[in-house]
Amino acid sequence: MAEITTDHAYSQITKLGAEPLWRHYGDLFHPEPRSAAVPHRWSFSDLRPYMLHFTETLSLEEAERRVLMLVNPGLADPPATVNSLFAGIQIIMPGETAQAHRHTANAFRFIIEGESAYTTVNGERVHMRPGDLLLTPGWHWHDHYHEGSGPMMWLDGLDFPLTNSFEAGFFELFGDRTQKSRVPDDFSSRVYIHGRLNPVWETPQTASSPVGNYPWSETERALAAIGDDVDGSESEGVVLEYTNPWTGGPVMPTIDCRILRLRPGFVGRPARTTASTILHAVRGRATVEVGDTTFDLEPKDILAVPGWARYRLDCASTSEDAVLFAYSNRPALRALELLREEALAD
Q1: 13 contacts 19 by C-beta, under 8 angstroms
Q2: How confident is the model at residue 87 (pLDDT cuts 50, 70, 90)?
Q3: Taking CA 167 as the corner, what is the angle to CA 164 and CA 169, rounded to the nearest 5 degrees?
């Protein structure tokens, strides 16, 4: 056998589908996380006219789901908002329906504007109002119908980037365009929304919450009851988490949802976490520093905060509360023992 040179060895092992670890070690094992996502803000007021435009120019046959994907500049192919989560803004007009389907990806809707629309999830009609959080756990049938007037818009949150990275995504259309109602409207909310009073006749079925809608009226009541009697978190103010009444944990196994109240004058302590987070300004204005970039959040804006990026929330220059909705991949990281969180010095 002829003598093997090092250059020849490298070229041949590549042809054989192998690579030397010592040449890639620094790319595979980093001193700390490196996110392909970048901090980015999407202005709702800038996007809204274009959403309305497409309702006039595209039929439902041409665009079954009128959704503007919020694509992170660092995650364009395939599109995602942060590394394992997606955000989009969906619009539905009066009299319109959306084809019933289901997918393994977990999803939710946080209502931005509009009235008198509902989504049907596994046979339960769940009505939408601004500030409501509606859940569509993985493999649940769902469709929408708008029986009111004016546009209905909401923030779509899904974990399909994570599901697809595991190569575990399935999708299926329902036999009919819409589902028939099989239980009383908003039944799951009326059964489960009473704080820590849970029905004992129900047996937990999945890791996802059974609540179809966490109404904004309940969220607002909780924030008002707490009032100014606590300072809350040093980094995020008064933080409340939407929870699964069966477990007390997050609403879905891969996504947690929280509401943050920042009082006027609040300046948060800098922090960072391996969890990637998407923020939505429900009301009021806030300033968010992410890394070296500062973003001014106006009402209804959406912001991507990549994992392990230094962030600080600031409401110092405002005269009214800022209320932010936040969702992250914290539950998935915690389950895999990859969650790390820390407060930082100013």
Answers
A1: yes
A2: very high
A3: 60
